[in-house]
Amino acid sequence: MSNSHLFMKSGFVRAPLQNGVGRYVPQLQRIVLKFCKTHGGSRGIRDFIEQDLVEFAKQNPSVVVYLKPRRHRSPVAVAEYLNGDRVWMSLHQKSHSEITKWIEVLRTQQGDVSATRLRKYQFTDHPSIQGPWTPFTFKDPELNVAQLPDPKFGANDRLPMTATDKLRIMFEKQKISEDNVKTGE
């Protein structure tokens, strides 16, 4: 066993902020694109900025995008995540399509997890090969795309009557009895 793990920061395998349980929280907080306006190695990043950057910013309103022109330097993308990680990526001599793919990779990951020594909350001599159980383990996948409430996934008539429904029924009964008194029945 090597001692390389001694110099790596350690962390737990977990979804930050219980990400994916309830709602999805994008982890990319900020991206800084550094480039040269004239250097040939920055051509791909300049094309990305001209053609796709506005659309990227519209599709990802939670990500702050900074453009930092620098003279006679290679293009670089620096991504900062909610967990404090910073990922630095050289974009020198990359084409427009390659840069689009790498920006998407930076957007979808949750920081530099590869440089982390993984730790676990639990330990067992006989680990399960099936993985941990969650409340969503045996749910019907069709439920992911269903428009709820749907009688197919549970009848709504079994729910207890709400206070608003009770008041509405009481009001209707009172109105009917008042109408009967006025007409003399």
Structural summary, described in words:
Belongs to the mitochondrion-specific ribosomal protein mL43 family. This is Large ribosomal subunit protein mL43. This protein has helices at residues 43-51, 53-59, 96-108, 163-183, and strands at residues 9-12, 28-35, 64-69, 76-81, 86-90, 116-119. The chain has 185 residues and is α/β, with parallel strands linked by helices. The protein has a domain at 8-118: Glutaredoxin. The strands form two sheets. It has a four-stranded mixed beta sheet, covered by helices on one side. Strands 1-6 form a two-stranded parallel ribbon. The longest helix is centred in the C-terminal third of the chain and has 21 residues, at 163-183. The model has no long low-confidence stretch (mean pLDDT 82).
Q: Into which percent range does the helicity of residues fall?
A: 25-40%
Query: How many strand segments?
Result: 6
Distance between the termini: 95 Å
CATH superfamily of the domain at 8-118: Glutaredoxin
Q: What is the structural class?
A: alpha/beta
Strand ordering within the main sheet: 3-2-4-5
Q: What series of H and E elements makes up the topology? A: EEHHEEEHEH
How many helices? The count is: 4
Low-confidence stretches: none
Q: How would a crystallographer describe the biggest sheet?
A: 4 strands, mixed
CATH topology of the domain at 8-118: Glutaredoxin
* CATH class descriptor of the domain at 8-118: Alpha Beta
The whole-angstrom Rg is 28 Å
